[in-house]
Amino acid sequence: MIKDVIKNLNLSSTLRINEISKDLEFQGKEVFKFGFGQSPFNIPENVKTELKNNAHQNKYLPMQGLPELRNEIAKFVSLRKNYQYKADNIIVGPGTKELMFLLQILFDGDVILPAPSWVSYEPQAIIGRNKVHWINTNRENNWFPTAENIETIVSQNRNKNYLLFLNSPNNPSGQICENLEELSAIIKKYNILVLSDEIYSELSFNNNYKSISNYCPELTIISSGLSKWCGAGGWRLGHFVIPNELKKLKNSLKVLASETFSSVSAPIQYAAIAAYKNDQSKYIKNSINILKAVGEYVYNNLKSNKVIINKPQGGFYLMPEFLDKKFQTSEEMCKDLLNNTGVVLLPGSDFGIAKDKMIARLSFTDFNGENFMKNISSIENINLEVISKFAPKVLEGTKRLKDWSESA
Question: Which residues of 30-43 are buried (b: 16+ CB within 10 A; e: fewer)?
Fold first, then answer.
């Protein structure tokens, strides 16, 4: 009674590892939760206050989203992209994951995924019955595709529609795409639709973040939300920014939305207005300062002649490759690591990387973000003493990981 396309799918690995970590902790075992990618910080107080103030909101809101919220999101995005978006360009959904799923359902064509890619892109494409073309990338190019990689695929059949996923800053690598101008030339040449997953963009470690939408806005859907920069993953509020040139696609997405989630929780939408309208710069700056300091600590203390790793550029991930480790698969490696050290990592194979490459994703967020932020609000330079005080599990987990990597 189950469709074949569903039978071969497994639980999302990121959610599964969170449950495994919780279960091990419940058993009283010491676990270093470097597997699940979740903001360690609390939601800004002004946003939480608005949720309390709007708890009485109990009516269905417009399917596309509360007009006041969409207007604030449009202004927020327009300022950052130097491109004029209006409220009508915005669709609010219960997390970007749901909106991406609906996009995969309506899209008629093939999907292009750089390896590594977030764990849910491919399963959603499979459910949507879209053929997936994987592009193998390399660390020298920040784990992003080249124009030549893309052209090799699309030039084989120019009559097809193609949807390219670009996630920058990237999950799982923590890297930022830097060859956007080169990519945009190919995107325009072949009229490729782009889903620019920018859920971590507000957490870029440098101030000069660029999006593919800065180069080809008419072909780019921007995907973002509150989960990462606002610490509100459990609120499940995301949005798509869809340009006027893709109006037909937007209207089809609205149809699917009307038949699935109807509308996002009313109190959360009213509260989200404050997230986008109020000045959150201090909160975001503190978040970035902490994440950059902690991420660079892990990077500097883990890299060696046994571990190859790129310096983090945004978000809260690193993607180490362990040399001289003789396992059949990266999944087997991560199981051995958990059993012997208590450190939880996700195997690179979950993100489209070849199983025999000993690559894993590391999330450096196993600390109390509320306590950390409360105590460093005026500190620009977060040193080792501060990190050891407010992120002790990250230090210990990194030490265990390094010792394991150097063991015979």
Answer: ebbbbbbbbbbbbb
CB 65 within 8 A of CB 258: no
Tens digits of per-residue pLDDT, 341-400?
999 999 999 999 999 999 999 999 999 999 999 988 666 789 999 999 999 999 999 999
- In order of 122, 222, 318, 342, the CA distances from 34 in angstroms are 23, 28, 10, 10
**Is 4-43+281-406 a CATH 3.90.1150.10 domain?**
yes
pLDDT band, very low/low/confident/very high, at 268 (cuts 50, 70, 90): very high
pTM beyond cutoff 0.90: yes
CA atoms of 111 and 335, how far apart (whole Å): 31
Q: Are 116 and 353 in contact (CB under 8 A)?
A: yes
Instruction: Please choose, from the candidates 237, 228, 347, the residue with its C-alpha nearest in 3D space to the C-alpha of residue 287.
Output: 228
Position 325 confidence tier, pLDDT thresholds 50, 70, 90: confident
Residue of 225, 113, 92 lying closest to 166 (CA atoms): 113
Answer positive or negative: Cα dihedral of 114, 145, 308, 363: negative
Domain extent listing, the chain: 4-43+281-406, 47-277
Instruction: Assess contact for 298 and 389: CB atoms under 8 A.
Output: no
Contacts of 332 (CB under 8 A, 6+ apart): none
338-352 in b/e burial notation, b at 16+ Cβ within 10 A?
beebbbbbbbbbbbb
CA distance 17 to 11: 10
Tell me the one-letter amino acid at 96: T
* Whether domain 47-277 has CATH 2.40.128.20: no
pLDDT value of position 371: 93
